[in-house]
Design the sequence.
């Protein structure tokens, strides 16, 4: 056995060196051919030009619009779904955000909503979370954004409710059945690979713009985390526990209801938490298809470069995200806390909860009856102060730090982005395609190579090859920066428990914030440029990369590190020769997740001058004649995401093998 291991280690080393050599040879050949063939067969398409595919998409859109009220498929299926979803959203809006017919205010005003938020947070969590919820919701009103915040909350709650109706049963089925799990996993992978932008255009084709399309898009985006985590929770219940229940005569239904689900409750609640966070992120972006709420305020401010208004609305989104995250996280930990509590404390809690319910009912009644308790008092002066402070800070930064920020922007743009973009966009399309296919096959295996070949062919078919390559360049540059930061901070966290305790809460909080929020501060720093989208993408993606790398470094056996220390290795050698090589799987997985996060954010950057596919999608929403081009751009984004995902996942499996 020892001899076999000794023989296999050199062979593994040869394979790794050989793969690197092949990659280097492919890149060298590309550079040589680029010099000779630069500018030929680049498939460039002007911003206002359309291909036959784009025109066909436009014709399909026009045809569907003309037949929407006569085609049986729309009359009895799509229109009915839209009607049901619209009614649900309208019902929730009339409860807390929009006045119904015959009333000047919603059914439950601000005082009742704050009371319900505090009581629910206390009931499912604890008094600290309740105080946070009350303070957070009150702050939304003080910002002058109460109605916009309640519109966002209405869409989020409606979408999460519908998503969980499907997600929990599907997750339970995937947890109980290996076959069903194998069937749904590829669909979940695909849904989670797609950037949020991509869901919007196809849904407007069938459900029009507005709250229904936004809610349906949010349901699709928010369901996969709940399905995955529920399935994981069911599978994590010890088999011996289930066998013991069955030996006592429990049926499968009883084992599910009395054993599996109760023992999975905390993990399932974590899935609900992730669905709520995904829904909030999607609802804000769905403002592009006329969804009401804070997202619309942010988009309008970004398009007019009004940093103060965008910052104030972005801060409201962050506050809502933090409150929803803390409440659902506390709900997940509540059952364990209750088990440790004494019966006397539980009785007191029940009495207090009863009194709290009565007080909340009084607040709801007051907010339903009296205007002063329904309309948030004041004129939102705090929001105005926040906006003015943001504008003042932006002006100061631009006046005093523009030299530093411009130098940083120009260094990255001229040193990395422009050369890579030129290489990708000025090379013949077939040459870039051949390089991508070859790299996919070398790094991920023949299956990844085949997937890449299919994606390249379809990218050419979209008619947006040049824009796709521009987006690819921005994505690759941002991913390189993500991995540089991820490795530095991830290794630091993995090697130091103190650093991990200090940094992890900030990283967790950063992952709670929707993508839109990241654009605002960097718009102030760097203006409306593609670099703004790249920096925002780096900040958005780096937390997940850091945590994955930190966990990978921490998983390296302590005995291995001790052996390296006893052999005389210094800290640098331990990191570069032991911990990072033994964390190859984590590094590749971090690259995979970083690419997916970066791609979604770079595309959102189309709102602030990033151009390319992101601009095509936004233009497709706002200009009817470019709808087909925007739809094709969404397809191109999906193809880039699938290609990245398949190559990096296959590479991660190879690295872990």
Sequence:
């Amino acid at each position: 056995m020892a001899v076999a291991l000794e023989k296999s280690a050199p062979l593994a080393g040869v394979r790794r060196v050989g793969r690197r050599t092949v990659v280097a040879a492919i890149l060298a050949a590309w550079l040589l051919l680029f010099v000779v063939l630069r500018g030929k067969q680049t498939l460039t398409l002007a911003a206002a030009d359309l291909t036959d595919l784009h025109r066909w998409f436009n014709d399909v859109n026009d045809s569907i619009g003309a037949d929407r009220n006569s085609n049986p498929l729309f009359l009895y299926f799509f229109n009915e779904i839209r009607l049901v979803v619209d009614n649900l959203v309208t019902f929730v809006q009339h409860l807390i955000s929009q006045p119904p017919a015959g009333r000047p205010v919603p059914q439950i005003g601000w005082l009742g909503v704050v009371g319900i938020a505090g009581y629910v947070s206390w009931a499912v969590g604890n008094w600290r979370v309740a105080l946070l919820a009350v303070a957070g919701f009150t702050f939304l009103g003080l910002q002058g954004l109460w109605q916009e915040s309640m519109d966002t909350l209405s869409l989020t709650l409606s979408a999460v409710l519908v998503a969980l109706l499907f997600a929990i049963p599907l997750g339970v089925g995937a947890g109980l059945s290996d076959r069903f799990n194998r069937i749904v996993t590829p669909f979940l992978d695909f849904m989670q690979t797609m950037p949020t932008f991509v869901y919007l255009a196809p849904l407007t084709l069938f459900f029009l713009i507005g709250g229904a399309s936004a809610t349906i898009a949010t349901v699709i985006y928010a369901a996969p985390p709940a399905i995955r985590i529920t399935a994981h929770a069911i599978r994590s219940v010890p088999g011996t526990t289930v066998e013991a229940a069955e030996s006592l005569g429990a049926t499968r239904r009883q084992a599910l209801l009395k054993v599996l689900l109760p023992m999975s409750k905390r993990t399932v609640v974590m899935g609900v938490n992730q669905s709520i966070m995904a829904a909030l992120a999607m609802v804000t972006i769905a403002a592009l298809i006329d969804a009401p709420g804070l997202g619309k305020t942010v988009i309008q401010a970004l398009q007019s470069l009004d940093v103060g208004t965008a910052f104030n609305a972005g801060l409201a989104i962050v506050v809502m995200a933090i409150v929803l995250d803390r409440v659902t996280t506390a709900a997940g930990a509540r059952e364990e806390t209750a088990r440790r509590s004494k019966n006397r404390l539980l009785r007191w809690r029940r009495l207090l909860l009863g009194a709290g319910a009565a007080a909340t009912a009084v607040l709801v009644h007051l907010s339903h009856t009296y205007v002063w308790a329904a309309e948030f008092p004041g004129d939102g002066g705090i929001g105005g102060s926040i906006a003015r402070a943001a504008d003042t800070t932006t002006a100061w930064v631009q006046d005093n730090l523009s030299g530093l920020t411009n130098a940083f922007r120009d260094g990255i743009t001229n040193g990395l982005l422009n050369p890579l973009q030129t290489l990708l966009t000025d090379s013949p399309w077939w040459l870039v395609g051949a390089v991508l296919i070859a790299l996919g096959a070398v790094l991920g295996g023949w299956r990844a190579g085949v997937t890449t070949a299919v994606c390249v062919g379809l990218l050419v078919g979209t008619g947006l090859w040049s824009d796709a390559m521009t987006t690819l360049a921005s994505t690759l540059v941002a991913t390189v920066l993500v991995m540089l930061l991820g490795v530095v901070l991830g290794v630091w966290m993995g090697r130091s428990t103190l650093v991990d305790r200090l940094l992890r809460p900030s990283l967790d909080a950063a992952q709670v914030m929707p993508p839109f929020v990241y654009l605002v501060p960097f718009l102030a720093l760097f203006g409306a440029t593609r670099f703004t989208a790249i920096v925002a993408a780096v900040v958005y993606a780096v937390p997940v990369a850091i945590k994955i790398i930190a966990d990978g470094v921490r998983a390296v056996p302590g005995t291995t590190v001790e052996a390296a220390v006893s052999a005389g290795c210094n800290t640098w050698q331990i990191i570069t020769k032991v911990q990072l090589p033994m964390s190859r799987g984590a590094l590749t997985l971090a690259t995979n997740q970083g690419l997916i996060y970066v791609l979604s954010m770079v595309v959102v950057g189309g709102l602030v001058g990033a151009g390319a596919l992101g601009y095509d999608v936004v233009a497709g929403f706002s200009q009817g004649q470019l709808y087909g081009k925007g739809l094709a751009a969404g397809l191109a984004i999906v193809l880039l995401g699938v290609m990245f995902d398949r190559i990096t996942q296959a590479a991660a499996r190879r690295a872990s093998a």
In short: The CA atoms of residues 406 and 526 lie 7 Å apart. The first helix runs from residue 2 to 37. The mean pLDDT is 84.
